[in-house]
Amino acid sequence: MSFMTLFAVLLIVALMIATFVTLIMGLINMTKSVRGEAESEGEGPSERALRSNKLMWYRIYFQLGAVLVIALLLFAAGANR
Fold this sequence. Notes:
Layout: H1 3-34, H2 47-79
């Protein structure tokens, strides 16, 4: 296994872990509203909704990164044949 392949595999694993952790953080954030913690009645989105949206975008970015690295690995593997 070459250095670049090992690096790509480790990067994919790191992105998968980051995606999973972000997903769990988002689920925990959602359960806070289910448990009935008070939310402010002000105008605009609540702090919890903003945090949930930010976590969702982070998860999407991590997933996109993992898919791109996998695509590059597959492209490189096909070019080496």
